[in-house]
Amino acid sequence: MGNKKTRGSLIILSGPSGAGKGTIHNELLKTEKNLTYSVSMTTRSPREGEKDGVDYYFVSEEEFKKEIKKNSFLEYAYVHSNYYGTPKKSVLESLDKGLDVILEIDIQGALQIKENYPDGIFIFIMPPSMRELKNRLVKRGTETKEKIIERFKNAYKEINEISKYNYVVINDEIEKAVEKVHSIMLAERCRVDRIEEFDVNNQEELLHELLVDFNK
Ligand code: 5GP
């Protein structure tokens, strides 16, 4: 009844490295058929087990700069000494089809998106504590000590920007954090201002006809 068509929502997940953004979006993709993940482009080298076109599109700095010139990015930023960017075309196509799109990007990128797509849903994922964040980064073992220190310093800067986001989810227990992000998505889908073609007049006419029927 009524809500014939909803636009896809752009969901922006940010938060310090090690906060658990990746695990959260992967869990959501398992259950949410209406959700797609935007694979970013990066100049960072692949980590062990990462696949080109799945985790990232891994490109050289030269290739990345060509894409900047072609205006191919919805946003891009220089993060932890590498470029990262969100390909524009695939995201816009998915939103047009009514799919929700999840972006996992840093604060600089999130602020760029906010300028151009203010109705995005901005969610900040927080680790339970800075000590726990450090433990997770060390345990993950994907970065050198210098890189961990760089990411840790960035975490402090990012946490200071939390007020720019609509929601904050503390990831102390992964199942609960996934449930919270999922609930945010479901609630946002029901927002009247996200529903196009909500045909109020049609509903009123139908109601009127039914009442006339009753009174016959
Ligand atoms: P990682 O190297 O750990 O995969 O990612 C490092 C940081 O870059 C994370 O904060 C991640 O969210 C961010 N990032 C990943 N893809 C993008 C993107 O397309 N744009 C921006 N601005 N940041 C991104």
Q: How large is the share of residues in beta strands? A: 15-25%
The counted number of beta strands is 11
Helix-strand sequence: EEHEEEHEEHEHEHHEHEH
In spatial order, strands of the major sheet run 3-8-2-9-10
Helix content: 40-55%
Number of domains: 1
Low-confidence stretches: none
List keywords for this structure.
single chain; 216 residues; alpha/beta; Rossmann fold; five-stranded parallel β-sheet; four-stranded mixed β-sheet; 45% helix; binds guanosine-5'-monophosphate
Describe this entry's structure for a reader.
The protein is an alpha/beta fold and 216 residues long. The chain has one domain: P-loop containing nucleotide triphosphate hydrolases (Rossmann fold, 3-Layer(aba) Sandwich). Helices cover 45% and strands 22% of the residues. It contains eight helices and eleven strands. The chain has helices spanning 21-31, 61-69, 88-96, 107-116, 130-140, 145-159, 174-189, 200-215; strands at 3-6, 10-14, 35-37, 41-42, 57-58, 73-79, 82-87, 100-104, 121-126, 167-170, 195-198. Strands 3-8-2-9-10 form a five-stranded parallel beta sheet, sandwiched between helices. Strand 6 (73-79) and strand 7 (82-87) form a beta hairpin. Helix 1 (21-31) crosses helix 7. The longest helix is centred in the C-terminal third of the chain and has 16 residues, at 174-189. It is elongated. The model has no long low-confidence stretch (mean pLDDT 90). Guanosine-5'-monophosphate (5GP) binds at residues 17, 40, 44, 75, 77, 79-80, 84-86, 104-106, 108-109.
